Amino acid sequence: MTYKVAPGAGYISYAIAAAFGFAAILAIAPAQAEECADRGDLDQAYCDADGDLVADPPSNLDDLVNPDTLVFAYTPVEDPAIYEDIWQPFIDHLEEETGKDVQFFAVQSNSAEVEAMRSGRLHIAGFSTGPTPFAVNLAGAVPFALMGGDDGRFGYTLQVYTRNDSGIDSMEDLKGKRIAHTSPTSNSGNQAPRALFPDLGVVPDEDYEVTYSGSHDQSMLGVVAGDYDAAPVASEVVDRMAERGLYDPEEVKIVWESPAFPTTSYTHAHNLDPELVEKIKEAFFSFEFEGTALGEEFSGVSKFIPISYEDDWAVIRQIQAANGVSYTPQDLANE
């Protein structure tokens, strides 16, 4: 089986990609043929002539793609099969608006999702908050929407949960404890805590032991089970878990809560035909959540709203800079 790597890059074997990892794909994919005056933090395969921090469409019209089947992925979750059903009403709507077949692609990790868009196997994707800058810089993802309310508000908070009987009542009580972070690239699950917690009197890895759980779901379930003393998690994830009855909210408490961060970004590949991109955006912005499985899953959300990566992810890039993050496959591989 073969997949297109990048415009003009030819084809590589998926088996080779799996064997050598994301770094191999980046090494194989060439830089854009045209001269590029400015690409900022973007990988050499992309250009940012207009300075909006995301990859420009290819200047060579032959490099634009307009596939018969669009592949859509949602950020890695505990049970992808459930989310495939939840997203089906939107997929149906996307097919109607674009006139294309749409295939749901269940991704197993943030790295795999970024790799899939980079290699041309993924056209539309929801990337979690922290991995979004990696997707932008390594895979040419262009964020254009996220879920919000009728009032245009969006976002989630970082919450620090512990069991009611843990004896932890303040952030300083985390000292000497075993705390679950999700993964190195996660914003609310790792990078925001490392950037924000020192001002609250506790330094991760110095004042408490960091254990990576792999996901917000696992962090929360581990706290409930007593495997971890506490965990920083994304409010939107634990709220949905509570609604599905995955834990009893009466058994836990919030020790600290942050200001709001942006949620999952919905992106398209930079090299899609502009007319197709407009149809994709129209599908997102015209979708009605009410009465659908998606609306039931994401309570408090009524529509997709337009966003700017340059503006709305500024705080995330600041947090990542404070953590010494570089948008490289090596840093992403630490996820």
Automatic annotation (TrEMBL):
<feature type="domain" description="Solute-binding protein family 3/N-terminal">
    <location>
        <begin position="69"/>
        <end position="301"/>
    </location>
</feature>
<dbReference type="InterPro" id="IPR001638">
    <property type="entry name" value="Solute-binding_3/MltF_N"/>
</dbReference>
<feature type="signal peptide">
    <location>
        <begin position="1"/>
        <end position="33"/>
    </location>
</feature>
<keyword id="KW-0732">Signal</keyword>
<dbReference type="InterPro" id="IPR005770">
    <property type="entry name" value="PhnD"/>
</dbReference>
<dbReference type="Pfam" id="PF12974">
    <property type="entry name" value="Phosphonate-bd"/>
</dbReference>
<comment type="similarity">
    <text>Belongs to the phosphate/phosphite/phosphonate binding protein family.</text>
</comment>
<protein>
    <submittedName>
        <fullName>Phosphate/phosphite/phosphonate ABC transporter substrate-binding protein</fullName>
    </submittedName>
</protein>
